């Protein structure tokens, strides 16, 4: 039995609330159980220097955890002077995931930055951030459409993410912290609405896992991401 009493293929309760920021062009608050992430999308009329003059845009992301998003207070990374390696890795993952479903040529020479701030953490913060970031990005692009800044088809698909792992010898979907902290294996899957694979991150925490176990985790991830994409569609409809 999982600590949360969920079935092996059952997501935590997921909710998405749009337009939670007064100032951002797109925003949402996403909750995966007790993991809560605020996602805001900001439009800028500029691109990175290495993209100037090429006629295409850029989508990037920043990620952070608030000091009391965890049991004990974390120091703000600004007080350390630089983001941690974990933070850099996660925000690059979010950026790659979003760029996989955006036609950058149709964005024009503009940059959209999606900020993902973890308000409360209970496992799966990066997967919640990616799933919520798509909604914030969608609303930002809709804001641009209303002002005739872009045409249709800038967004080519949905993208969402979920964790899977092996807990007490069994593959399970959407690990919370109690499972993640003692799992035999932990993986993160990022996929598009059409089922394309954007990225897979997998780690054996104790002993190596088999191809069969990986295939079972992949099947669980496809099911979970299908449910998350359905929720995204319902949210923006």
UniProtKB/TrEMBL annotation:
Exoribonuclease phosphorolytic domain location, by residue? 10-140, 159-224
State its Enzyme Commission number(s): 2.7.7.56
Q: Which reaction(s) does its UniProt entry say it catalyses?
A: tRNA(n+1) + phosphate = tRNA(n) + a ribonucleoside 5'-diphosphate
Enzyme class comes to: transferase
Chain positions recorded as phosphate binding sites: 86, 124-126
Q: Does the keyword Transferase apply?
A: yes
Q: Name one Pfam family in it.
A: RNase_PH_C
Keywords of this entry: Nucleotidyltransferase, RNA-binding, rRNA processing, Transferase, tRNA processing, tRNA-binding
Q: GO molecular-function annotation terms?
A: 3'-5'-RNA exonuclease activity; tRNA binding; tRNA nucleotidyltransferase activity
RNA-binding as a keyword of this entry, yes or no, is yes
- What GO biological process, any one, is recorded here? tRNA processing
Give the record's subunit note.
Answer: Homohexameric ring arranged as a trimer of dimers.
The record's function comment reads:
Phosphorolytic 3'-5' exoribonuclease that plays an important role in tRNA 3'-end maturation. Removes nucleotide residues following the 3'-CCA terminus of tRNAs; can also add nucleotides to the ends of RNA molecules by using nucleoside diphosphates as substrates, but this may not be physiologically important. Probably plays a role in initiation of 16S rRNA degradation (leading to ribosome degradation) during starvation.
Q: What is stated as this protein's family in its record?
A: Belongs to the RNase PH family.
PANTHER family the record matches: EXOSOME COMPLEX COMPONENT, EXOSOME COMPLEX COMPONENT RRP41
Q: What is this protein called?
A: Ribonuclease PH
Tell me the organism: Hyphomicrobium sulfonivorans
